[in-house]
Design brief:
Layout (H helix, E strand, L loop, with lengths): L2 H13 L7 E5 L4 H12 L1 H4 L2 E8 L5 H16 L4 E5 L2 H7 L4 H20 L3 E3 L4 H14 L10 E4 L2 E4 L7 H10 L16 H16 L3 H27 L3 E3 L4 E4 H5 L3 H15 L8 H11 L5 E6 L3 E6 L2 E6 L8 E4 L4 E3 L5 E5 L9 E7 L6 E4 L6 E2 L8 E2 H7 L4 H4 L4 E3 L5 E4 L3 E2 L11 E7 L4
Parallel strand pairs: 1-2, 1-4, 2-3, 4-6
Antiparallel strand pairs: 5-6, 7-8, 8-11, 9-10, 10-11, 12-16, 13-14, 14-22, 15-22, 16-19, 17-18, 19-20, 20-21
Helix pairs in contact: 2-8, 5-6, 7-9, 7-10, 10-12, 12-13
Family: Belongs to the tRNA(Ile)-lysidine synthase family.
Catalytic activity: cytidine(34) in tRNA(Ile2) + L-lysine + ATP = lysidine(34) in tRNA(Ile2) + AMP + diphosphate + H(+)
Subcellular location: Cytoplasm
């Protein structure tokens, strides 16, 4: 048995990558890596009890040459009775019409294609041919770049309702080439892989040979490191999510973090907590680095009541009293106003519900209410704040600006525009829920009054 076959078999078994009944789509470029993986899985369809399909995307960068690679893979599959699906996509044209770098756009389009291919064949796994040398390059690139994640290429990950698996991470390039030569696969060779214009190629051409000279089995060590880091990250990631549940509030408008509770967490969880927030806000795209995480953590230690930090793509991070707020600066202020009559209820866009009733309210920990005279001018209005809003607080003489009320209560600036303000039908300010009721609340029995209930979940 070739080294290739022996190591891949052990790797698949150790990680339980494949089981009987799997329908596996293989991403195939026609190069040595992916062609060897397709040939290996095809030769074991019966022994493993699996079905194998081939997916090929022509990026059309090299015109007729790349089209011939498509035809080569198609014929390869035809000879081996492997179901084949291909598409041609003019990536250069897509780049002209969309924003993003070449590598980013190409990767997005490639995985969108893989998703369509899996759906076409009802595949539950996508096998990709990343190998041990790729792992070394990736981890070194992440370290040099200062990326937020530095654990390399995962052995498996969820994708398109199934998962991506990478059976060749246990091999180096030499083992793959030996396999191709032994079985006379005659793979295609992409000349762009030798051009130093691409970052990965520079690592491949200059750094990898040095590391292999120091230790020919360096890919094994990097793969073990990657697996250990991913295992640790998975455990610590789940622990971080659990800790963050009660101290991180997020919605479509902004995210906020309770600073005191956050700083009580161990530092490794704090780092992952900031990474979790940024990953959520950037929708999984790598628009931030470890340096940004360090900057935020350092500023959180500052005793100042307020500070502001600008991150990529217009994301602002600022401290406002006891909160750290994350918000994209391009977001415009949203103004809302809802009318409320007896037995009506409305949902507040930033969290919570209001109900106006003449029934005695049930006591609930997450709700509060205000008792109003039946002569109150209806409909009530629940709205966002306006400049110059004033309230005549219950038990106090005179009036108070709502702006000053927010300052006294140390409400973050970014939350003030989200806070509900309740007025009567003539615009008289009745209530700032969670903060202050006006003198218009009626004390005593609720027998002949209206009750405005606020069932909250944020404020």
């Amino acid at each position: 048995m070739l080294v290739y076959e022996e190591k891949v078999k052990r790797f698949i078994n150790r990680h339980r990558l494949i089981k009987a009944g799997d329908r596996i789509a293989v991403g195939v470029s026609g190069g040595p890596d992916s062609l060897s993986l397709l040939a290996y899985l095809e030769s074991r369809r019966e022994s493993l009890g699996i079905e194998v399909f081939a997916l090929h995307l022509d990026h059309m960068f090299r015109g007729e040459e790349s089209y011939q690679e498509l035809k080569f893979v198609e014929q390869f599959c035809k000879r081996r009775n492997i179901p084949f699906y291909a598409e041609r996509m003019n990536i250069a044209k897509v780049l002209e019409e969309t924003s993003g770098g070449l590598q980013e756009v190409s990767r997005r389009i490639r995985y969108e294609f893989f998703g369509r291919g899996m759906q076409k064949f009802s595949a539950d796994k996508l096998a990709l041919a990343h190998h041990g040398d790729d792992q070394v390059e990736t981890i070194m690139m992440q370290l040099v770049k200062g990326a937020g994640s530095r654990s390399g290429i995962p052995v498996r990950r969820p994708f398109a309702g199934g998962e991506v698996i990478r059976p060749l991470l246990t091999l180096d390039k030499e083992m793959i080439e030996e396999y191709c030569h032994y079985f006379e696969l005659n793979p295609c060779l992409d000349p762009s892989n030798t051009k130093a214009v691409y970052t990965r190629n520079r690592f491949r051409l200059h750094l990898l040979p040095f590391l292999k000279k120091e230790n020919p089995k360096v890919h094994d060590h990097f793969q073990r490191l990657s697996e250990e880091l991913n295992e640790d990250n998975e455990f610590l990631g789940e622990l971080t999510k659990e800790k963050m549940k009660n101290i991180w509030q997020k919605n479509e408008h902004a995210s906020s973090l309770k600073i005191e509770a956050f700083q009580a967490m161990p530092l490794p969880l704090q780092k992952r907590g900031i990474h979790l927030i940024l990953n959520y806000l950037y929708d999984g795209k790598s628009s931030f680095s470890f340096i940004h995480i360090q900057q935020i953590l350092q500023l959180l230690k500052d005793d100042k009541n307020s500070w502001e930090l600008d991150l990529p793509h217009g994301l602002k991070v600022c401290r406002e009293y006891h909160l750290c707020v994350f918000k994209f600066s391009t977001e415009e202020k949203q103004e809302y106003a809802f009318e409320l009559n007896v037995e009506d209820q409305i949902s507040w866009p930033y969290g919570g519900r209001f109900v106006l009733t003449d029934q005695t309210p049930h006591t609930r920990m997450e709700s509060e209410y205000m008792i109003l005279d039946r002569q109150v001018k209806l409909p009530l209005c629940v709205r966002t704040r306006k400049q110059g809003d004033k309230i005549q607080p219950k038990g106090m003489n005179g009036s108070k600006k709502v702006k000053d009320l927010f300052i006294d209560e140390k409400i973050a600036r970014t939350r003030r525009d989200q806070w509900p303000i309740v007025t009567d039908g003539e615009g008289k300010l009745l209530w700032v829920p969670g903060l202050k009721k006006s003198k218009y609340e009626k004390a005593g029995s609720t027998g002949n009054h209206l009750i405005l209930i606020y069932i909250r979940n944020h404020f």
